[in-house]
Design brief:
Strand order of the largest sheet: 3-2-1-4-5-6-10
Structural class: alpha/beta
Largest sheet: 7 strands, parallel
Bound molecules: nicotinamide-adenine-dinucleotide, 2'deoxy-thymidine-5'-diphospho-alpha-D-glucose
Radius of gyration: 19 Å
Strand content: 15-25%
Shape: globular
Length: 346
């Protein structure tokens, strides 16, 4: 299959690109190369015969039309987005422009391309979204595919909007779409603005490790390569018009997670005192969602998907990767906003 992957120079998109190439697919990686992108993430496949890269912004409709007409993909996997909640608090406009208007452009370009190729029923538009569209849970319960949307940050509201657009393009125009909503990913190539890479890098730098609020907020963690595997499965086997929640059933409070990372670092990169001593509680994120938890029953029962690594294994692999790939993250330290507290909405 020839797959157009948007956002393929980012964290999850690059895992999808690497996995798809390793499974013999052709890939067109379309990415605007924003601050969050890194072509090193796909260096391992850049010379593969089935790989092509297009530096294109999804807000640029003529460029999207040109890429679709030049490459004629069998499917689109849409991951390009502004993805960081804290940045959406500081500057929501780009989130609306890329996540809402960019998705609208891509849907229209895909519809025109699909019409032009005779509305092939085998074509797929796979929209990759987040569990944050469902809002914030209390201590009990999980998000299912039927949970009503209740986004609470500019980021999650923009992703919810894009989900609604994708469903509307299916219902109204018949575009063969599938959707997925996944929980928090972690693993190699995670950009150092998100919690897990921040903890590792701050720990190694001997700086305070910032925990928002009291650290009781809960996230449901999934290793990024397991997410990429689930995405390719949904692309190939998912029912048209259906959405699938993806998660590893690995809930952790932020404080527990950070303590675990510090313990792993104490073992892998020991120093005189524990990295845990660097944990520092800082002002909370405005509108901080208390808890996310995914019920993955549908993708497990209908498509047979299961994650391959436990969170304990995944965190060990991740810390090892950051220790072994310092050149990758050191090159990102001077990118805009990296190393600085974001999202305080003062
Ligand atoms: P990321 O920020 O690491 O990567 C996003 C990529 O999209 C970057 O390479 C960037 O250059 C590109 N991009 C941004 N704006 C663009 C534009 N206008 N045109 C073209 N390319 C553009 O994000 P990620 O964490 O890899 O997330 C990928 C997708 O998965 C997003 O849609 C996100 O909402 C979703 N998601 C993320 C998580 C998570 O835990 N990170 C969980 C569930 C869903
Ligand atoms: O749930 C899926 C979502 O997970 C994705 O849709 C988003 O794209 C992705 O960024 C992620 O959103 P979160 O806001 O959950 O991730 P983040 O790494 O920013 O924060 C994780 C938790 O850690 C959250 O409760 C806020 C807290 N946090 C975050 C940072 C950056 C801290 O305590 N300290 C920090 O420095």
């Amino acid at each position: 299959m020839k797959i157009l992957v948007t956002g393929g120079a980012g964290f999850i998109g690059s895992a999808v690109v690497r996995l798809a190439i390793s499974r013999g697919h052709e890939v067109v990686n379309l990415d605007a190369l924003t601050y969050a992108a890194c072509l090193d993430n796909v260096a391992s496949v850049a010379d593969a015969p089935g790989y092509a890269f297009e530096q294109v912004d999804i807000r640029d409709r003529p460029a999207l039309d040109r890429v679709l007409s030049d490459h004629r993909p069998d499917a689109i996997m849409h991951l390009a987005a502004e993805s960081h909640v804290d940045r959406s608090i500081d500057g929501p406009a780009t989130f609306i422009e890329t996540n809402v208007m960019g998705t609208f452009n891509l849907l229209e370009a895909a519809r025109s391309y699909w019409d032009g190729q005779g509305r092939d029923p085998a074509f797929r538009f796979h929209h990759i979204s987040t569990d944050e569209v469902f809002g914030s849970l209390g201590p009990e319960g999980q998000f299912t595919e039927e949970t009503p949307y209740d986004p609470r940050s500019p980021y999650s509201a923009s992703k919810a909007s894009s989900d609604h657009l994708v469903r509307a393009w299916h219902e109204t125009y018949g575009l063969p779409v599938v959707l997925t909503n996944c929980s928090n990913n972690y693993g190699p190539y995670h950009f150092p603005e998100k919690l897990i890479p921040i903890v590792i890098l701050k720990a190694l730098a001997g700086e305070p490790i910032p925990i928002y609020g009291d650290g009781s907020n809960v996230r449901d963690w999934l290793y990024v390569e397991d997410h990429a595997d689930a995405l390719l499965l949904v692309l190939e086997k998912g029912a048209i018009g259906r959405s699938y929640n993806i998660g590893g059933e690995n809930e952790r409070s932020n404080l527990d997670l950070v303590r675990t990372l510090c313990t792993i670092l104490d073992r892998m990169a020991p120093k005189e005192v524990s990295y845990g001593d660097q944990i520092t509680f800082v002002a909370d994120r405005p509108g901080h969602d208390a808890r996310y938890a995914i019920d993955p029953t549908r993708i497990r029962d209908e498509l047979g998907w299961r994650p391959s690594v436990t969170v304990e294994e995944g965190l060990e692999k991740t810390v090892r990767w950051y220790l072994d790939n310092r050149d990758w993250w050191q090159a990102l330290l001077d990118r805009d906003g990296v190393g600085r507290r974001l999202g305080r909405a003062s």
